[in-house]
Write a structure and sequence with these properties.
Blueprint lengths: L2 E5 L3 E3 L4 E8 L7 E7 L6 E7 L5 E3 L7 E6 L4 E6 L8 E8 L12 E6 L1
Parallel strand pairs: 2-10
Antiparallel strand pairs: 1-3, 3-8, 4-5, 4-9, 5-6, 7-8, 9-10
């Protein structure tokens, strides 16, 4: 079973940038799709983007296309979420999770909080 830890969230001004990290332990990301999600105050958790570890295929939500970039470090077994041109509406707790063909994503991390001030 893979364990995930997110980090990198902090308070940033609108227009700023952050890079979030999703680090895996227990096993590698091989065979998984790694997803980033976010949960804003008072809202449901929403999909941000994902990367298929085997193919490298990346998908983004429309709300972040052109501003967020997912990348990976195979050697470090880590997935990154680079965020630029941040907006107050990007304020949320960001989570990573994995998917491997079951009913849903699983092995959620504890989340990392991103606050974008206007």
């Amino acid at each position: 079973q893979v364990q995930l830890v997110e980090s990198g969230g902090e308070l940033v001004q609108a227009g700023g940038s952050l890079r979030l990290t999703c680090a895996a332990s227990g096993r590698t990301f091989s065979g998984y799709t790694v997803g980033w999600f976010r949960e804003a105050p008072g809202k449901e958790r929403e999909f941000v983007g994902s990367i298929n570890w085997r193919s490298g295929s990346i998908t983004y939500a429309d709300s972040v296309k052109g501003r967020f970039t997912i990348s990976r470090d195979n050697a470090e077994n880590t997935v990154y979420l680079q965020m630029i041109s941040l907006k107050p509406e990007d304020t949320a707790v960001y989570y990573c999770a994995v998917y491997n063909g079951g009913p849903s994503y699983h092995s959620w991390g504890q989340g990392t909080r991103v606050t974008v001030s206007s």
